[in-house]
Amino acid sequence: AKEHGKSSVSVYDTARQAASLEVMALQNELQRAIDGGELVLHFQPTIDLASRTVTGFEALVRWQHPERGLVGPAEFIPMAERSGLVVPLGSWVLREACRAAVTMGEGDDAPSMGVNVSSQQLVRPGFVEEVARVLRESGLRSQRLVLEVTESVLLDDFEAAERALNGLRAIGVSIAIDDFGTGYSSLSYLSQLPVDILKVDKSFIDRVCAEDHSASVTLAILEMSRSLRLQTVAEGVETLEQAAWLEERACGRGQGFLWSRPVPLADARALLLRPLED
Ligand code: C2E
Ligand code: CA
Ligand code: CA
Ligand code: CA
Questions:
Q1: Which end of the chain has fewer CB atoms within 10 angstroms, the N or the C?
Q2: Among all ligands shown, which has an atom nearest to the Cα of 180?
Q3: Is 262 touching ligand 1 by the criterion CB < 6 Å?
């Protein structure tokens, strides 16, 4: 293997150079997309399981790429996080989502709007002030905004995250823990932080009717949620069987393809006007 070492290193270097050039080109393209209006939001409803009505939406970003068509976030969010572009991208998403929410109604029963926030955004000085300003400029009541963070945010820099979450609570914004159950979940941090909603990760919901392990994890999360007086949203509900299982166990809300995929704003608004078919 030793005599092949040199040539394999240079092959590796060439590949790595090509890869980093590709990454740089992609970063430039994404920066242009943010500035040039190539990003779009789709909205997926969350459903009250007892009444089967829409309680809110989650804003999910897509990239309307001139050559590649509609590109999903899995293909550019990781790179945006590595390059720091997730900060300007996140600012754009927050502003657009709040503007969209205002067009969905304004009364007491108007739907909530969930926005995904990456840890870089959350712990940056000035984030709470940015959220307050976007709410003011859009005219959205703070009670309607839900910021979704993953558990890993809390591992990265717990104190900065805690400070930001407390600041957000103080201005009336709700906090959801996204993909709950997949990361470092601890009762002590949950009771310590101003969290309002747990979103149970899709991987458990997928097998909730088929496998004891997923069912027990989901039950444990529902129990914990109840004792901490949090709301629970089951993510990735695809079948009526899953919806019934969750409703029987008093899970408050669900989100998933059973009711709707993420859709453009006009279609999301239409969902508010007619009863859901499921
Ligand atoms: P997430 O926050 O967990 O969002 C839920 C994802 O699950 C969405 O994928 C949604 O389309 C998908 N989903 C919902 N219900 C179902 C279902 O019943 N079946 C299946 N198979 N999938 C379902 P999407 O839109 O591709 O987003 C993927 C991830 O990208 C999101 O996961 C989130 O982590 C990230 N993301 C999306 N928008 C943003 C954003 O604006 N900012 C940041 N930082 N991340 C974002
Ligand atoms: Ca989310
Ligand atoms: Ca999630
Ligand atoms: Ca996820």
A1: N
A2: 3
A3: yes
> What residues have CB less than 8 Å from 165, skipping those under 6 apart?
122, 149, 175, 193, 194, 195
Residue 261 has pLDDT above 60, yes or no: yes
Q: Report how far residue 7's alpha carbon sits from residue 16's, in angstroms, rounded to the nearest whole number.
A: 14
Q: What is the pTM of this model?
A: 0.93
Rounded Cα distance, 156 and 186, in Å: 15
φ/ψ of residue 109, rounded to 5: -100, 15
- Residues 222-257 pLDDT 10s: 999 999 999 999 999 999 999 999 999 999 999 999
Ligand 4 center from residue 103 Cα (angstroms): 27
* Contact (Cβ atoms closer than 8 angstroms) between residue 39 and residue 61: yes
Half-sphere exposure of 218 (CA within 13 A, CB side): 31
Q: How confident is residue 8, by pLDDT bands cut at 50, 70 and 90?
A: low
Q: What CA–CA distance (Å, rounded) separates 236 from 47?
A: 12
- pLDDT, one tens digit per residue, over 132-172 is 999 999 999 999 999 999 988 888 888 999 999 999 999 99
For 177, list phi and psi in degrees, rounded to 5. Answer: -95, 120
User: Encoding tokens for residue 28?
Assistant: 């430039």
Tell me, in angstroms, the distance from the centre of ligand 1 to residue 7's CA.
42
pLDDT at 2: 45
